[in-house]
C-alpha cells in the first residue's frame, strides 16, 4: 500500500509540469495505490517509493521540491524530457544511487549540491 505522504508528494510533483501526451494518466488522487502508477516503483516490504522512472515521458516544466518527501528514493530517471533547470535540492536526495537527467533543456550551472550525493554510482 502506498504511503499517503509519498502519494501526495508525487501528485504535487505532477502539478509542477505538463505532460502533453497524458502518459501519466494513472497519477490521480482517486487511485490510492501509487505503487501501481506508471513510472513509480516501491519497496515490496516497506511500500516506500524507491524509484521514479519518467524518462521519455515528454514532460515540460519544473522539477518540484516535493520530491524531498520521497526520503527513500534511490533511482531517479528524468531523462529525455523538457526540464530547464536542475534544482539545488536534488543534492538533498541522500538515498539516490542512480540519477539520469540527460537529454533535457537545461540551462545555467550544475548545482554544486549534487556533490552531496555520496551514494550515487550512476550519473548522466
Automatic annotation (TrEMBL):
One family name in Pfam for this protein: LRR_8
UniProt-annotated location(s): Membrane
Protein name: Leucine-rich repeat-containing N-terminal plant-type domain-containing protein
Source superkingdom: Eukaryota
One cellular-component annotation, GO: membrane
Membrane topology category: Single-pass type I membrane protein
UniProtKB keywords: Glycoprotein, Leucine-rich repeat, Membrane, Receptor, Repeat, Signal, Transmembrane, Transmembrane helix
Domain Leucine-rich repeat-containing N-terminal plant-type: 6-43
Primary location class: membrane
Keyword GTP-binding set for record: no
Amino acid at each position: 500500500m502506498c504511503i499517503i505522504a509519498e502519494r501526495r508528494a508525487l501528485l504535487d510533483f505532477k502539478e509542477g509540469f505538463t505532460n502533453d501526451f497524458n502518459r501519466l494518466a494513472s497519477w490521480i488522487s482517486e487511485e490510492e495505490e501509487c505503487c501501481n502508477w506508471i513510472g513509480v516503483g516501491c519497496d515490496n516490504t516497506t511500500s516506500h517509493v524507491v524509484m521514479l522512472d519518467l524518462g521519455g515521458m515528454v514532460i515540460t516544466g519544473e522539477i518540484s521540491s516535493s520530491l524531498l518527501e520521497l526520503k527513500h528514493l534511490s533511482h531517479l530517471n528524468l531523462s529525455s524530457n523538457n526540464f530547464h533547470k536542475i534544482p539545488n535540492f536534488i543534492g538533498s536526495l541522500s538515498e539516490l544511487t542512480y540519477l539520469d537527467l540527460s537529454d533535457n533543456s537545461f540551462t545555467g550551472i550544475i548545482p554544486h549540491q549534487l556533490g552531496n550525493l555520496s551514494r550515487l554510482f550512476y550519473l548522466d
